[in-house]
Amino acid sequence: MKILRLGVGLLAAASLMTSCGNSGTKNKNGTEGALTKNAAEQVYIAPGEHDDYYAFISGGYSGNLLVYGLPSGRMFKEIPVFSQFPTSGYGYSEETKPMFNTSYGFIPWGDAHHPDISQTNGVMDGRWVFINENNTPRIARVDLTTFETAEIIEVPNSAGNHSSSFITENTEYVVAGTRFSVPVPQRDISIKDYKGEFKGALSFIGVDQETGRMEIDFQLLMPGFNYDLSHPGRDKSHGWFFFTTYNTEEANTLLEVNASQNDKDFIAAVNWKKIEEYVKNGGGKMMPAEYAHNVYDHHTHTATSTMKNEVRVIDPTEVPGAVYFLPTPKSPHGCDVSPDGEYIVGNGKLSTDLTVHSFTKMIDAIENKKFDGEAYGIPILNFDDIHAGSVKKAGLGPLHTEFDDKGNAYTTFFISSEVVKWELGTWEVKDRKPTYYSVGHLTIPGGNSREPDGKYMFAMNKITKDRYLPVGPELEHSAQLYDISGEKMELILDFPTHGEPHYAAAIKADVVKGNSLEIYDLEDNKHEYAIKSEGEARVERNGNEVHIYMSTIRSHFAPDNIEGIKVGDKVYFHVTNLEQDFDVPHGFAMIGQNNSELLIMPGQTKTTTWNPKKVGVWPFYCTDFCSALHQEMQGYIRVSPKDSDIELTWSLGDDE
Amino acid sequence: MKLASTIMVIGSALLLGLFIYPLWHVELEAPQYPRGLGMNIHLDGIVGYTKHDIRNIDGLNHYIGMKTLPKKGDMWEFTVFPLVVGGMSVLGIIIGLFGFFKRSAYKWFMAWFVLMTVLGILGMIDFNAWMTDYGTNLDPNAIMKMTDDFGNPLSYKPPLFGSKDILNFTAVSYPSLGGILLGIGMALTFISYFVGKKLSKKSN
C-alpha cells in the first residue's frame, strides 16, 4: 500500500514537471509560453473600459467600413457605405436610396478598399473617414460625429478606383486614381487599340473644410498604365502625390504575364500644387462627363442625389514640371511615403527587394534636368539619380509599407507571409515575423500622417485557413496585432475581420470619441415627414399613395390601428423616433414588406414603403428590444378590397 | 544454400512493394500551407498527397515559369519503370529458386545485384535529369524571374535527398516505403550472395 502511494506521489510530481516544462516550450506561433500570458494582458480591456485606438477597417467586398478597437480587436460597428444594409434600412429607406445613385443607375453594392482619416497640418484630426469604391468608381465620406456615410461622389473617366482614397496634409484633396485605363471619353473602339488610346485618370477631389463636401477639382489624364496605389507627400514633400504604376507595357490581355515583362515600371510623381495653380489661372478644359454626387444631411435625415455633367481635365504635358516618372523595379504595388516626406517606397511585388527613392534627390534631378527619356511627353528621371537605397532580399512579394515614430519601416510580404521591420537610411532588416497567412495591407495608427504612433501594428491577411474554428469553405479574413514598441515585433492578438479588409486607418480614440453624437436632437429634425409629438400623428391619402406620419416612443406606435388601406395602395411609413435618450432606437417592420426593416435612432425619421397585396388585417411591430414592454409594441393595418369605400381612420388607445 | 536462396527470393520479392507503395516523395512546406503540399512518386506516375495537391503545386509553379508536373502518358519512364522493376523482381525470384537446386547459383545473385544497381543508378540519373530540367528549364516569360546572389537565374530543382529552401518554401525529398523496401530488398540480395558463397564453401 505504501509503495502504491509513493507511486501516485511520483506520478503527480512527474505530471507537475511535465506541465512546467510545457509552459516553457514554444507554442504553434513560436512565441514563448510565458509571453503568451503577457500578450493576453496587453490586449485585455477590462469590462466597461475603453480601447486606446479606433481602427477603421475596410470591409472590402462587403462594401462597408468596420469600426474596431485596439488593442482588444473588438468590433464595435459596421458602418454601411457602398452596400445596402437591411439591419438599419440603409439603401432601402426612401431617405438613403439616393446614396446609391450613379450614372449607371442604382448600384446596391460596392467594393470598399482604402479608408483614410482627414488631417490638419499632417496630423489626423478625426473629422471624417474617406473610403473608395473600386468597381463603380466612387469616394465616400463618413462623418465621425454620427459614424454614418455622409456623402458619396462618383468618379467619371475612371475604372477600378484603386489608387484611392488618400488624403493630403490639410485634407485639401482626396485623391482617386484609376487602376484600369479606359478610353477617355468612352467610345466604341477595338480593345486592341489600347496603346495610346486608353487613358488613366487621376482625380483630385477638393474638400470643403467646413462641411467636408467633395467636388472634383480636376482630373489629370495620364498615359494608359494601371495606377495601382498612391500616397501624398508630407512635410517637405507636401504638394506632391506619388502613384505606383504597373502595366507600363500597356498590355490588354493576360496581364499576369504580359504586364510583368518590363524590368521597371514607374512611380508617377505629381506636383499637384503646380496643377492647382494652373487650374486657378483657368487651365485645363471642361469635358462632358456624367457622374452622381450624393449628399446625406443629418438634419433632414435625407440624402439628395445630383447628376453632374462636366469635369475639368488636364493634359499633363501642358503643365510643365507637373509630372515626372520615377523608374521603379518589378510592378510596384504599394507606394508609401515616410513621415518626414523624404523617402518614397516602391514595393515591387515581383521582387525580393524594396526600392526607396529620395525626395531630395528627385528635386535635385528635376532641377538639373537629369532625364532619361520620356514617356508620352512626361520626363523619366534616371533611376540612379533618385535612388536612395534598396532593402535587399527582404522577403518575397512586398506589398505595403508603414512607418513608426523611431525611423523604422514595416513591410508586408504576401508570398513569404511575413512582416519585415527595417531601418530607413541604413536599409537593414531588423526583424521579421510570420503572418497567418499571406498578408496584404498593414496599419500603424497615425500611419498616413507626419506622426505615426509606434505602439501597435496590425496585419490584414488574405488567407485564414485553420486560424479559427472551421466554418465551411467561406471564411472571414484574419488579422494579427503586433506590439512594435520594442526592438522585436511581438504577436499579441489574432482576430477575425469582416469581408476582405484591404487597408485600415487607425487613430487615437481621444481625438474622436468626444465628438460622437449620442442622439439626434428632435428639435433639429427637419425631415419633410417628421412629427415632433404624438398629436401630429396622422394618415393622409393622395390617390393610391398613403402617407402614414408615425411616431415611436416606449412602448407604442402612434397610430397603431389604421383602417381604410386598400389592395394596390402604396403605403409610406414615415417613422419618427420621439425618444431623446441615448441608445433607445426603435425598429419597424411590416408583414410581407418587400423591403428591409427600419432602425430609427432617437430624434430621427426614416421612411419605408409597403404594397398591400392581400385583403385582411396585418400586423407591424418594433424589431429592436426597446423596453420591458417591447413585445407589446405592435399595431394592425386593415386592408380592404380595391373598390371598398371604408373610410381612412387611425387611432391609438381608443378601445370603446 | 537454402538460407541464401530464401534471402534472395525475399529480397527480390520486396521490389514488388513498389507496385503498392511510392518510390519517393517530395513535400513543400510554407507558412500559408500549414499542412504542407506534397507528391508521391510512384513507378507509374505522380500522385498528390491529397486529391488536389498536384493541381495546387502546378498553380504555384506557374508564377516562376515551371512546367506542369508530368501526367502518366507524358513520360516513357512511367511505362518502362514498372516493366523493369517487375522483370527484375521476377528474374530475382527465379534465380533465387534456382539456388535451391544449384549450389553455384549464388554467383548469379551477385550478377543480379550488379545489374539492378546499374539500372538503379541509371534510374536515379534519369530522375535527377528530369528534376534539373523541371527546376531550371523555365518559361522565359515567367511572371517572376528570380536571381541568386550572383545574378544567375534561380534554380527551383527540388533536392534528390534531404531538404532545401526554395523561396518561401522548404522542399523536402526522401524515399517512401516502396523505395525503402527496394533498398532493403537489394541489400538482402547482396547479403544472399555472401551467405550463399559461405555456405557453398562450407559444404565443399
UniProtKB/TrEMBL annotation, chain A:
One of its GO terms (molecular function) is copper ion binding. InterPro entries: Copper_CuA (IPR001505), Cupredoxin (IPR008972), N2O_reductase_N (IPR011045), Nitrous_oxide_Rdtase_Sec-dep (IPR026468), Nos_propeller (IPR041114), NosZ/Cyto_c_oxidase_sub2 (IPR051403), WD40/YVTN_repeat-like_dom_sf (IPR015943). Keywords: Copper, Metal-binding, Signal. This is Nitrous oxide reductase. PROSITE patterns: COX2 (PS00078), PROKAR_LIPOPROTEIN (PS51257). It comes from Brumimicrobium salinarum. It is found in: Cell envelope. One of its GO terms (cellular component) is cell envelope. SUPFAM superfamilies: Cupredoxins, Nitrous oxide reductase, N-terminal domain. Residues 1-21 form the signal peptide.
Automatic annotation (TrEMBL), chain B:
The keyword Transmembrane applies. Keywords: Membrane, Transmembrane, Transmembrane helix. The chain crosses the membrane at residues 7-24, 80-101, 108-131, 177-196. This is Uncharacterized protein.
